[in-house]
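User: I would dearly like some help making sense of a protein record. I have put the entry right below:
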Amino acid sequence: MTPDPMALTAWKADRLRALTAEDGWLNLCDRVEIPPGPQSVGSGAQNGVVIATGPKVLGVIDAAAQSFTLPDGTRLDFAASAGGFAQLRVAPFLLELHVVGAQTALRLRDLRLPRQADLQYFPYRPEWVIRADWQALPQPQTKSIGQKGGAETEVQLTHFAAFQHLGQPVTLLATHWKGDKPMFVIRDQTSGTETYAASRFLIGEEITQGAITLDFNRAFHPPCSFTDFAICPLPPRENILPFRIEAGERF
């Protein structure tokens, strides 16, 4: 990836736009697992799904049917969203069916909450734009990884990126995919001081059969750094790096 200050500026603007969107992470106010079958939703203790805010009874949710029935009997249907999870507006909330494994939870976003952020970045470091080897594993592997805010989960590993740093080999496992691009969950020696303690995320770019670009200037904090109601993967052991990466998003 050829260094392009304008492209990095546009990437940062897109990052801020997604974070502050209605379905971003700044107004997420609750996440509650939904028991099987239709369940009443509201802040009252009598509900099957008790939310932290809002009316005593908001309505009835049917996760299997992806529907929501208002107290007056009106049925509303969830619709697919760009983020991959079904969503529905029920004023003043945006409801989302968040599926992890076999468990569906209701994620609740309060559209009345302010959505402002001042993202900070290390100065641009061209040496942290790395053209790495992109190699397929001999056989796909299933790996169990931890999650902040959730139980361990299994991911399917198919590729890794390899490069040299200060003469030492570095191997990063791609544990997730965003669209058609691999995502690396990393931790380095800035974690917990200049950057979020649990991890940062990095999306691979310009992928060919044997190479991938890792632009650490585009490393970014996970949703868990903005809200306690998100579930975020933790880095596998291979992605915990014994050196500092002074590039990308920071506190």
